[in-house]
Amino acid sequence: MFEATFNQASILKQVLEATKDLVNDANWDCSAEGIALQAMDSSHVSLVSLSLRGDELASYRCENQISLGINMNTMTKILKCAENNDRTIIRADDDADVMVFVFESEGRDKTSKYEMKLMDIDSEHLGIPEQEYSATVQMSSKEFSRIVRDLSTIGENVEITVDKEGITFGAKGESGSGTVSLKSNPSVDEGSSNITIDLTDSVKLNFALRYLTFFTKAAPLSDNVSLSLSADVPLMVEYAIGDVGFIRYYLAPKIDDDEDTEE
């Protein structure tokens, strides 16, 4: 038997919004420790990793480790039936073919119940190796979203440079180019200008803005975002979900056409 209770439906809604455009179907792996999801997008360019700790939820139990095959769009539609502040319970029996959703209003005067058919998804759990990164940047989620949105109007790719001066995002397109540079500025006051950089080596890598745009949909989950970069390894973009867990995205760097084109 698996059952998890969230004090507010908004957390689950935001998690689904942050993943459904990249992954259509995925297994939610439930264990005594909590809920985990790991899936690649259809083009196998990016990977999503979600972790929700059971002991930080309103209540949680999972007697046997189970994988629940979820269609993200269907689950999103069901969650839209809940108000953001509704207490939300999701449950499934060990051999169930449905997941049950129970939404309780703030005043406990309204209860809604829905069932969603589960899927049989054959997916390989990819081991993500621990990685030491050359540069890790902590910045405002809103600022990162704004930069990605603005540069997407200029070009399809972004060059991210991190050095001792700070972090620079640059894009080029047929109509022109644009750059945004942010200096490291850790401050006691919370604000969009707060940038902290942990740097061992300078890094300069290119990434597809299309995928970074998908990643920024997790911005409502956290005020801050962490970008971790190293040469020749995927970028890791991480948003903390309070004390409950995190959502991480991995994106392979782009290689210049002239480097990977052979006669």
Question: Which key features would you list for this structure?
Answer:
263 residues, alpha+beta, Proliferating Cell Nuclear Antigen, DNA Polymerase III, Chain A, domain 2, 9-stranded antiparallel sheet, 5-stranded antiparallel sheet, 5 helices, elongated, DNA sliding clamp PCNA, DNA-binding, Pr_cel_nuc_antig_N, DNA replication, Pr_cel_nuc_antig
Overview of this protein structure:
The chain folds into two domains: 2-117, Proliferating Cell Nuclear Antigen, CATH 3.70.10; 135-220, DNA Polymerase III, subunit A, domain 2 (DNA Polymerase III, Chain A, domain 2), CATH 3.10.150. The chain is elongated and about 55 Å long. The protein is of the alpha+beta class. The longest helix has 12 residues, at 141-152. Helices cover 16% and strands 44% of the residues. The chain has helices at residues 9-19, 72-79, 141-152, 209-215, 257-260; strands spanning 2-6, 25-30, 34-40, 46-53, 59-62, 66-71, 87-92, 98-104, 111-117, 135-140, 157-163, 166-173, 176-183, 196-199, 203-208, 224-229, 235-241, 245-251. Helix 1 (9-19) packs antiparallel against helix 2 (72-79) and helix 3 (141-152) runs antiparallel to helix 4 (209-215). The strands form three sheets. A nine-stranded antiparallel β-sheet has the order 6-2-3-4-18-17-16-10-14. It has a five-stranded antiparallel β-sheet with strand order 5-1-7-8-9, with helices on one face. The model is unreliable at 257-263 (pLDDT under 50). Residues 127-254 form the Proliferating cell nuclear antigen PCNA C-terminal domain. Keywords: DNA replication, DNA-binding, Nucleus. One of its GO terms (molecular function) is DNA binding. InterPro entries: DNA_clamp_sf (IPR046938), Pr_cel_nuc_antig (IPR000730), Pr_cel_nuc_antig_C (IPR022649), Pr_cel_nuc_antig_N (IPR022648). Pfam families: PCNA_C, PCNA_N.
